[in-house]
Amino acid sequence: MSDAIEVLRPRPQVAEVWLNRPEVRNAFNDTVIADLKRAFVALAADTELRVVLLAARGKAFCAGADLNWMRAMADYSWEQNRQDAQRLADMLWTLDQCPVPLVGRVQGDCYAGGMGLASVCDVVVASRQATFCLSEARLGLLPATISPYVVRALGVQASRRYFVTAERFSAEQAHRLGLVHQLCEPEALDAQITELIDALVANGPAAVKACKQLVRDVAGQPLTESLRAETARRIADLRASPEGREGVQSFLNKRAPNWQV
Prior knowledge:
Blueprint: E1 5-11, E2 14-19, H1 30-44, E3 51-56, H2 67-73, H3 78-96, E4 102-106, E5 110-111, H4 113-119, E6 123-127, E7 131-133, H5 147-154, H6 156-165, E8 168-170, H7 171-177, E9 182-184, H8 189-202, H9 205-218, H10 225-239, H11 242-252
Parallel strand pairs: 2-3, 3-4, 4-6, 5-7, 6-9
Antiparallel strand pairs: 1-2, 7-8
Helix pairs in contact: 1-3, 4-5, 5-6, 9-10
């Protein structure tokens, strides 16, 4: 793995993945894409892990595609462009499928592919100074590979606007639209992140993973008999599990559960 990203483990339950190219506003290139995918494949296999922080060094979160990478792509054939885009699509899918909560720390500009990164996060905490933009149309392009995640995060109506206008919008607007879950002043960003991560680590590890998967599986589904039966089965599975039993007993006995360390 290159030095384009940093993977830190401040404690066994927590991983931090930092984009580390502040000199180019943490823009993507093929190395960053490969490193992010490799890092999250490894993290997904870590049974101790309970939460991942996705963050970036410097003033910008991610400014989209690296200019040198874009210059190289200008001479690509159609097939080379397709393969290159497929690698980005596969990387985003890998992050989206992370089994534990992925927390995004957006401290500055979040443009184009950076919007894709923010959109795959389960919780996004942003500085009030951050700005957002789906800038692809300005270059005669479209946000195709990031679109499944951005549309899910922004909603259809907002995506219809910002895909075609390529306007910048504020952190406050991103919060109103649902992409950003929590806003704070720049100096409070790390404290808010720490508080959120501590809250996630305090919850049942298996329950948190199951909750994340539950949202994926029920979102947009019709409320059928089979769905009702499936949700009943899932809560029964956890109630009967060692973690579920421990959680209920610790609550009834007014003590901390055994997964809190």
